[in-house]
Amino acid sequence: MNSVIVGVRQGCSLAPYLLEAVLKLALKDLDNGVNVYGTRISSLRFADYIDLIAESPTELQDLTDKVDQSSNRLGLKINKQKTKSLAIWKEHEDLQIMLTGEQLEQVSEFVYLGSTITEDGKCGGVPWGY
Question: What is the dihedral of CA 95, 100, 101, 102, to 10 degrees?
């Protein structure tokens, strides 16, 4: 017989609140990110989808390391197969972002919340920031 040590049952009404509380703890001390109208933003979240945002590959690696460490402390595991990197810039830039000793796959586009985001800064065919 399997016994559950940690967790809630599927469909439990507390699950989204517990996930939000744990993710808030995991992401609370991120000091890198980009400046948007005077506010520093290092991540975007929707349920268990998390985007880390940085101004350079070095900062992105730092954010990735910090989120991995804090997630591990809280009992969360990052799925390496579902984790990707994307550099949004006018020209292609090779990233070598590592997660626990393995390089993350770099993609030229991905779908986030129904919109395709591309490395040339377009979202759904419309350039960002124009």
Answer: -60
Q: Which residues contact 15 (CB under 8 A, 6 or more apart)?
A: 8
Q: Are strands 84-85 and 49-52 parallel, antiparallel or unpaired?
A: unpaired
How far apart (Å, rounded) are the C-alpha atoms in residues 101 and 82?
16
- Of 63, 39, 65, nearest in space to 51 by CA: 63
Q: How many CA atoms lie within 13 A of 44 on its CB side?
A: 7
Prediction pTM value: 0.78
List beta partners, residue 123: 117, 126
Residue 54 CA to residue 87 CA, distance in Å, equals: 10
> What are the pLDDT digits (tens) for 70-107?
888 888 888 889 899 988 877 778 899 999 999 999 99
